[in-house]
Write a structure and sequence with these properties.
288 residues; alpha+beta; Ribosomal Protein S5, domain 2; Alpha-Beta Plaits; 2 domains; 8-stranded mixed beta sheet; 4-stranded antiparallel beta sheet; 9 helices; 12 strands; globular
Amino acid sequence: MKPGTVTAFCPGHISGYFKRISGNTRAGTGSIGAGIVIDKGVLAKVTASGKTSVIVNRNDARGKLLERSTGSPLIVSVMDRLGVTASIVTECQLPIGAGFGLSAAALLSTLTALNRLYSLDLTDHAIALYAHEAEVEHRTGLGDVAACQGGGRVVRRGPGIDGRIERRYDLTEPVYTISFGPIHTPTVLGSPRQMEQVASAFPRRSPKNVEDFFQISRQFSLHSGLATPEVRKVLELCTARDVPASMTMLGNGVFAYGTEARDILSQFGGVCECGMARSGARITGVSP
């Protein structure tokens, strides 16, 4: 008996620094850079249906609904490519469009669930490729799908899902985040001038450890011209207190490392605590 509903989860990804790499195809286009795959992401509940519908819910830590929207051109475009329809409800706790890789997480969790629901026989590689190509096409991300194929602190040395990726599982303390609102990712990724400045700020070396990753990322956020006044103010205070911190790419927010980070970030608004994810997308539930 085939399932009627499949639920899947995919972690999010905070990028510390990146550089766009343009290829001849969408699969070969992406970015190199580094970031952290976090244990908060997107839960997708996918139910068999003859008509496609998408509901996007953002909840608080207790499950209370904070925001609801309908429709997702990104998800629908991939479903059209696959020739399937379904009723989809995605849930997340983090702000959407704020640099947490949630569009990639939504795609990967939805596709993972669809694959099981309709027995599409897609490999994890094929699922990631569909998701990555959709992100590149819609300019919603360049390297999040590649990172979210697994967990850890990630250094991506090649573009696309087949680029060489190094993963270190060396975060021993929580990551705290604060968001001042979204940044329109397609506008930034589609701006040749902005991408030139981002490329010139790209670091010439890889981070030695967690603290070094935050230091390199902070320098990148400032030199790339992406850091907003709100972000700069928080980073200045974190630097004065020796707390590793940087800007969430691409979002108007800050992520910081260690227990002292919570007290600093809480001075500027609501704080979310994240851990390091150890795996990528996975099925969490199947029901008739």
